[in-house]
Amino acid sequence: MPELRQNLITRDWVIIATERAKRPDQFAAIRTEAPPIPCYKEDCPFCFGNEHRTPEIELLCLSDDRGWRVRVVPNKYPALSCLGERVRKTEGIYRSMSGVGIHEVVIEHPRHDITIALLSIPDVANILNVYRQRYRDIRKDPRIEAIVIFKNHGQEAGTSLEHPHSQITATPIVPSQIRIRIEEAIRFFDDMGECIFCRTLAQEMEAQERIVFESKHFVAFIPYAALSPFHVWIFPRRHTSSFEDITDVEILDLAYTLKTVLAKLYYGLNNPDYNYSIRSVPTRDGQTSYFHWYIAIIPRVSKSAGFELGSGMYINTAMPEDSAQYLRDVQFVVTNEDANIIKLLTGKEK
Amino acid sequence: MPELRQNLITRDWVIIATERAKRPDQFAAIRTEAPPIPCYKEDCPFCFGNEHRTPEIELLCLSDDRGWRVRVVPNKYPALSCLGERVRKTEGIYRSMSGVGIHEVVIEHPRHDITIALLSIPDVANILNVYRQRYRDIRKDPRIEAIVIFKNHGQEAGTSLEHPHSQITATPIVPSQIRIRIEEAIRFFDDMGECIFCRTLAQEMEAQERIVFESKHFVAFIPYAALSPFHVWIFPRRHTSSFEDITDVEILDLAYTLKTVLAKLYYGLNNPDYNYSIRSVPTRDGQTSYFHWYIAIIPRVSKSAGFELGSGMYINTAMPEDSAQYLRDVQFVVTNEDANIIKLLTGKEK
């Protein structure tokens, strides 16, 4: 019989299709033979040497003696306008607002043919550093209520540009999806006197069934009621409400964790398309006892939108415990550069 | 500047991309030359003559002297099991439940090559009649909390079977998506003393800007804060909480309305893939003052899941007012059979 599980953080119920569940390796992406991706493309606006093809304003640039490593530029086709004020209007019961906000692109690397799963840990740390700096700058904007950092990898995940990049959006309202999570977290805190994310983490650590990877400061696991196959959450062990609070040491450790999880997906599921997003408390809420920032990674390995849209419920055709076991077992070669950093972070030889 | 609008019924904020908005006709589906669909396929389990290919139990069959017109059978690969009891379990803070429930398939017509947009009004009424009868039967099941009727048309909408069909799911819990709508509706009723759906309908009737089609008992319109292009809601004018309360006269009128709206999508947007769903109050809530059943039709004419998943906000690249105008203007030929029924329903010649 299928099993229904409730995702405590979103309150969604998901059907875990125990009987129809596929084997983990059946979710691997099927890729048709394609020409290899070149390391530079003349018409790619994000490639090294093509900086003139991006908007003139450079919001942030992280460089070393090799040139720039990570750049942030305004989105050329922004969903929200960075100019103007928040103006509310009502028409009868309807409410609208001027579409002000921030929409930036983080160009993750000068090379066209790379992806986070294959980057060195220091390169991933550079990206995370840039995320943190932009977060800290953007939150000073009084028009902003919430900042979400996200990445679309591959066409199924909604990107049209091949060059590795992520996006930062800052909205003049709190999206209802975030508001619902906050409300649930407050209710749990009121009832139980602790953070629902901390409690979830403690229970996962005890059960050990759904853990994908652990580092000193982070734990990556498949949620008990994962809404889709191989959905992974990365939680910081230290309770803090916003990504901007991350320390330098934690950034390096998160780079190690994120790269490891994405590499496990890359090698275990044949470079699947995926989205990830970094969720924090709304900018004005500051440090709270009830909300805990986290990263959600959603591989696009199954399609089932019809049932979900219709019924309001999710079906997951992978057992969270089996998916976690499968990812735990994926091994990959670590470069010497990364091995030295891992030794530094863990005190152990890899 | 883009405009943010709030969808009062879901509380989602949507970005109406006023500047980047496409012209309505740019959303038409692009279909490559394909062989015409045959009216019968030997290996199709839903075709007339192939009844032995569906599960043995026939839940409902509506026939006339031509043979069966609409059949209901159990889903061969049900997401929920129809046998067994609701058994709750907890593991620490986690909650789970046995996956009992109902998952049925409504075979809408004996012919393989047809779609609701092209069916006669009486044929559509047959389908709606069957929906109502199954709804009334299923709600007697004490394990059921919510019943959702939905349809996936085309691959983008999540179906793999070409033969026209829809699905009925009945769940042993109330999906959080429905619960959120209920909570909003209750809050509006407490604040304003009226049903949010009735109020929305009154405002749309007054504005007239987003109306797609009106019949005696139903109004089809594009929501003020439509989450995606050409999203259409059909609201009954009479306040009632559940689809099962629909009368025979209203069924014929809804058949006219649904067929007309789907035909406008079919001809105006080149037979786009779409989902629709019929949402009612949870089965135990009975007749309420705050909730109003409705149909949501979501054409799958744009892809933008990356931004939505990441930011929790929607982007709509079509102006609701323009989309409504476009659909209002789509004309199509009405058969004599339908013309007679329309005359009966409206008192006017068509």
Number of helices of chain A: 7
Supply Rg of chain A.
20 Å
Q: What structural class do the secondary elements of chain A suggest?
A: alpha+beta
Describe the sheet with the most strands of chain A: 10 strands, antiparallel
Task: Indicate the multimeric state.
Answer: homodimer
User: Could you give the count of β-strands of chain A?
Assistant: 15
The CATH architecture name of chain A reads 2-Layer Sandwich
> Could you give the order of the helices and strands of chain A?
EEEEEEEHEEHHEEEHEEHEHH
Distance between the termini of chain A: 42 Å
CATH topology of chain A: HIT family, subunit A
Low-confidence stretches of chain A: none
Number of individual domains of chain A:
1
Q: Choose one word for the global shape of chain A.
A: globular
Describe the structure.
The structure is a homodimer of 350-residue chains. The first copy, chain A, has 350 residues and is an alpha+beta fold. Chain A has a single domain, classed as HIT family, subunit A, CATH 3.30.428. Helices cover 27% and strands 23% of the residues of chain A. Chain A has helices at 121-138, 176-192, 196-207, 248-268, 305-311, 320-329, 336-346, and strands at 3-6, 13-16, 60-64, 67-74, 88-91, 94-98, 102-107, 146-153, 165-171, 211-214, 218-221, 232-236, 274-279, 294-299, 314-316. Chain A is globular and about 60 Å long. Chain A starts with a strand and ends with a helix. Chains A and B meet through strand 1, strand 2, strand 6, strand 8 and strand 9 of A and strand 1, strand 2, strand 6, strand 8 and strand 9 of B. Strand 6 of chain A pairs antiparallel with strand 1 (3-6) of chain B, so a sheet runs across the interface.
